[in-house]
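User: Show me a protein chain along with its predicted structure.
Assistant: Here is one chain, sequence first, then structure tokens.
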Amino acid sequence: MSILDIYLQKNGKKRYDVFKETGISQQMLSSVNKKNVSSFSVKTLQAIAKTVKKSEGIVLDELLRLEKENAYFEVFSVEDLLLAFNNKESYIVIKGEYEKEVEKFAETLLSDTETLGLELGSHGMVTILAEAIYQIVNVFSSQNNEHKKIESQIRKYKLKRMNDHELLLYLRQLDY
């Protein structure tokens, strides 16, 4: 989970804002994003604190609380969803108007029962064949690259409606 991105998102910022505000390299922020809060350097905490305009102590407390809560990555737009996929987030909450658009992507997914029936009936060969067909169709598709990337990545997730305006995407492998 990318605690840094979730924390910055909750404060209306992105890693790029930390870079612009403090000059700390984006490569460093990217590597920190994959680590536990306890391994954040003082320099990184100071940069985050300066960007969100809070003290280092408050930032550290809030980051540790987020890490303990296993916070969900919240998505309001295409850019947010692509960032969540790039970070390989386990849990993604789709909110606002974008929820309806993501639901359209999810309509093309087979249910677990349908998938299991196909795989058992074909001894797993249908999965390989379906992936090959999917990749061929993608090559000749006229859809933009963002749409292709979302469609490809969303296949790794299950969808669950949380309420009228929120969808939860979670990795399929978490069910096993």
